[in-house]
Amino acid sequence: MRSARFKISAFLSVLGLLGSTALAAEPPVFAPVNPARMSEVIRTLASDPFEGRSPGTIGAVRTVNYLVAQFQAIGLQPAGEKGGWTQEVPMLHTRIAPDSRVQFQQRGSEGLEFTQSREIYLTTSHPASQIRITEAPLVFVGYGVDAPARDWDDFKNVDLKGKIAVILINDPDFRAKSGEAVAGRFGGRTMTYFGRWTYKFEEAARRGAVGALIVHDTEAASYPWSTVIASGGENFALDRPETPDSLLLHGWLENKAAHELFARAGLDLDALSEAARRPDFKPVALGGMALTTELDVSTQHLQSRNVLAKIPGTTHPDETIIYGAHWDAFGKSKGPHGGDMIRHGAIDDASGIAAILEIARAFKSGPAPERTIVFGAWTAEERGLLGSTWYVEHPLISLDKAVANFTIDVLQMGGLSHNAFLVGAGQNSLQDDFATIAASQGRVTQNEALPERGAFYRADHLPFARAGVPVLPIMDLAGYPDLVNGGVSAGRKWLDGYMACYHQL
Ligand SMILES: [Zn+2]
């Protein structure tokens, strides 16, 4: 919590600068951030009655009610729909039956059967109670990237209609050695959007594939297989009126199982993965290997809610500064020993919610801000940035004059640190302000040290950035904190320990 206080005071100071007319002006005086109160918020949101705050559950209803009460108690004004505190976000929730099985068969050879959450992990965003796929051919498409601006095309016009695309995670030069043709084309170890699983599914859908399977790799994904399967076959998507795309199934192959599948098809996955780092890579059919399955799906249309509050600005009320964090976590699922367990989401992201509540309190204690300050507690971030995406598509205060979005996702809990990390460097001048404030605290600002994790694509600031709003994400997955107690090695221990149970607790 102590480091959280550090960060937030940095944040407030940044805002103090933005809210006043000149950088040189005296920063306004705010009430100090109260770490005990933040702990209390985290403890409450992470407690059993909130059931892990999954959209569509009683825990979600309790969470939204709690947030509205908090915003009210702080003395904010509602910024939701129809003068209220919330914005409805329509979602389609699906869950694939836990014991589902998938057959892989090659004519004339013995088949392989994969079981959900063991060798394969499948989800769907189709509103159907059953998904049936018969003998859909498998095609390995390398990293599954089509990036003309980087002179890269993994697909080479391969026809994916009705087929299953098998794809590597991360982007083509994640493992490149210097001198290789791909080296540097995708930002070196820094993950580009082409490395994210979301992009890979989108691209497979654009090409008419019926399914897309990503080969899991702990290093390249930055999280273990246990994180992949933690969602228990659930999927949430924005419930839009458009006809759904061709992709009936998306999912992951466990690494060893994927190797076995390729071996059955007479192929060497490691050799193909190396070949995929060359621009002349061509998709490879898995030797007539085809997928057959019949899956039962439970489907539910539901309304979740963003919670929104504001402090109107005095001189520039139409210009907004948006603070956001997500209220959702992963709800309940089967634990390692079969029993139900709640995944409380204390750090991710009750800590961010606690931060924006505390920032709101601080603002209310100081002089009225010149610009309108908006506080957004988004739903369904963990399910694909759904709440923030919906808000950006349906803003309740025009985003044309949104001057900044600060997104707080996962505060660093390891302790006071000498450094502070910038996620997605080179975007805007907010980062310079951030560095100035960090320096005033005697801290060094560093660019994200683990850029292969693609943090910039993993939180609610992304839809705002895409809409042209200057963003500053604060995410503590970006590098190892140099802790006052114990230095970088203690910081590494903290972050690695956290990532090993990421999204599971
Ligand atoms: Zn999060």
Question: Overview of this structure, please?
Answer:
- The model is unreliable at 1-10 and 12-25 (pLDDT under 50).
- The longest helix has 20 residues, at 346-365.
- The protein is globular, with a radius of gyration of 23 Å.
- It has 505 residues and is α/β, with parallel strands linked by helices.
- Helix content is 28%, strand content 27%.
- Helix 4 links the parallel strand 9 and strand 10.
- The two termini are 19 Å apart.
- Helix 1 (2-19) packs across helix 11 and helix 2 packs across helix 9.
- The chain has two domains: 2-74 and 312-500, Zn peptidases (Aminopeptidase, 3-Layer(aba) Sandwich); 94-299, Glucose Oxidase, domain 1, CATH 3.50.30.
- The protein binds zinc ion.
- Zinc ion (ZN) binds at residues 326, 348-349, 381, 409-410.
Return the domain count. Answer: 2
Task: List unreliable stretches of 5+ residues.
Answer: 1-10, 12-25
- Number of alpha- plus pi-helical segments: 13
Shape: globular
The percentage helix is: 25-40%
Mean pLDDT: 90
Distance between the termini: 19 Å
- Please name the CATH architecture of the largest domain: 3-Layer(aba) Sandwich
Record field, number of beta strands: 21
Short description:
The protein folds into 2 domains: 2-74 and 312-500, Aminopeptidase (3-Layer(aba) Sandwich); 94-299, Glucose Oxidase, domain 1, CATH 3.50.30.30. Helix content is 28%, strand content 27%.
Indicate the topology.
Elements: H1 2-19, H2 35-45, H3 58-74, E1 77-78, E2 86-96, E3 101-105, E4 112-115, E5 120-123, E6 130-140, E7 146-147, E8 152-153, E9 164-168, H4 197-206, E10 211-215, H5 218-221, H6 225-228, E11 234-238, E12 249-253, H7 255-264, H8 269-275, E13 284-311, E14 316-326, E15 331-334, E16 340-343, H9 346-365, E17 371-378, H10 386-393, E18 402-409, E19 419-422, H11 430-440, E20 444-447, H12 461-466, E21 471-475, H13 487-500
Helix pairs in contact: 1-11, 2-9
